[in-house]
Specification:
The chain contains 14 helices and ten strands. It is mostly helical. The chain has one domain.
Length: about 450
């Protein structure tokens, strides 16, 4: 039991660490390419400097993500060998394609970083765009494998063995579309608000810095569009989960009793033993609509599911509440930003809006981590849904707690180096591009 807990913690730490860099790797190259496109169209040098600054950040996070991703690939085999033995022939294809996309991303990034004044301007811009496209493709292939764990398809399970394997069917499983859309949007939301928040903080110190103003507008524009699309994606994902994984959906809402016209729970502290929820309130019929698009539809409660197949209800419920709450908060800020931008007001650079953006800096990544808790912890006790339990895949290797300590130390060291490198980048930001500060701000 100690080794199982240590293995789970190690995998959670590795995934939680890597997902941040994966999302930055998906979104930042598009910010970078958009900034260069603005330079090519306008000739404004501030966009060129912004492109160069962001490209250095992309390179740093790419290298960090490559390290954490490599660690993850080793952990899958070392910690969960039975899973890899059984699942490898089925989901090996998306991992292979992910490797190909990673190499394309690396080559394109090399061309972009070292191609300044060597490549044709538009060819250089294209290489930056390819970095972003390859980064998104790489993540989509990985998400396909994760979606398969939630919706295993493309094989027949006979006497503990997978037969009649169809890798294409496995790759494009029923959960693939909803997970990849939701995750891709989450990458742009979390990265966009983080980048905008950092530049908002720097603008509060230097209101007339044109470099930070341009950066804030680009990052917030991407984040705002993605944040307003995310609730639509979330609704689609919720209906998909309710249909395929009723235990996860019930845990998300701490929904113990099967009922029609079920109410959507806001807040609340689940009491698993009594199968009740304290201090929350429900919006009548909304959970039925969220699950099945019908206010009167029946929603399966945890009472219908064997107790040994329940996920940790409290953890999943709290994570879901955090994800949804922060998602709605970011959508509200996105709507406010677009409204101010559309009206052409200078308020997006006013102190009050900059402070709002600064406060939101980590919120996207907090929501992102909470969403992964819902996805992964909500699938428990299964590593392959309804096929193989997590404990059945655990390595017999002793002393996993020591590898957990080692991995924690490595990630702590990487974080320190990353912070140091990013501080150097912030200190090198140009300050000679100035904007006239509007008195209305």
């Amino acid at each position: 039991m100690e080794d199982l807990l240590a293995a789970r913690w190690q995998m959670a730490l590795s995934l939680g660490f890597h997902i941040v860099f994966a999302c930055i790797g998906m979104a930042m190259p598009f910010f970078m390419a958009f900034a260069e496109w603005r330079w090519l169209k306008s000739g404004d040098e501030v966009y060129k400097e912004l492109t160069k600054a962001w490209s250095k950040g992309v390179a740093i996070f790419f290298a960090t993500g490559a390290v954490s991703g490599t660690v993850l690939s080793f952990e899958l085999g070392l910690l969960w060998p039975t899973f890899m033995e059984k699942a490898g022939p089925i989901i090996g294809m998306p991992f292979s394609w992910e490797g190909a996309a990673f190499f394309v991303e690396a080559i394109a990034l090399g061309l972009f970083l070292y191609g300044w004044d060597k490549l044709n301007r538009w060819a250089h811009w294209t290489s930056g765009l390819v970095v972003g496209i390859a980064g998104v493709a790489s993540a989509i292939f990985v998400m396909s494998a994760n979606a398969w764990m939630n919706s295993p398809e493309g094989f027949d399970w006979v006497n503990g063995q997978a037969v009649n394997i169809d890798p294409v069917d496995a790759m494009f499983n029923a959960a693939w579309v909803s997970e990849t859309i939701h995750m891709t949007l989450a990458a742009f939301v979390s990265t966009g608000f983080a980048v905008a928040g950092v530049h908002a903080i720097l603008l509060l110190r230097d209101r007339g810095n044109l470099f930070h103003r341009k950066a804030l507008k680009i990052a917030m524009s991407f984040a705002a569009i993605a944040a307003l699309l995310q609730p639509v994606s979330g609704d689609y994902s919720a209906k998909d989960v309710a249909d395929r994984q009723p235990a996860k959906f019930a845990a998300m809402e701490a929904h113990f009793e099967t009922e029609r016209s079920a109410g959507l729970l806001i807040g609340g502290i689940p009491n698993v033993e009594k199968q009740t929820v304290d201090y929350g309130f429900r919006i009548p019929g909304l959970l039925s609509f969220l699950a099945h698009g019908d206010l009167d539809a029946e929603v399966t409660g945890l009472e219908e599911i064997p107790r040994e197949h329940w996920p940790p209800v409290a953890i999943v419920h709290y994570a879901f509440q955090i994800m949804v709450g922060l998602g709605m908060l970011m959508a509200a800020l996105a709507l406010l930003y677009l409204l101010l931008y559309w009206k052409g007001r200078p308020k997006i650079f006013s102190n009050w809006f900059l402070r709002l953006a600064a406060v939101m800096t980590p919120m996207g990544f907090i929501a992102l981590e909470a969403g992964w808790v819902v996805t992964e912890v909500g699938r428990q006790p299964w590593i392959i849904y309804k096929i193989m339990k997590v404990e059945e895949s655990l390595t017999p290797m002793p002393g996993i707690v020591y590898t957990l300590i080692l991995i924690t130390f490595i990630y702590l060291l990487i974080t320190i180096v990353l912070i140091w490198l990013m501080r150097r980048q912030f200190q090198a930001v140009p300050t000679h591009f100035r904007a006239e500060v509007d008195k209305k701000e």
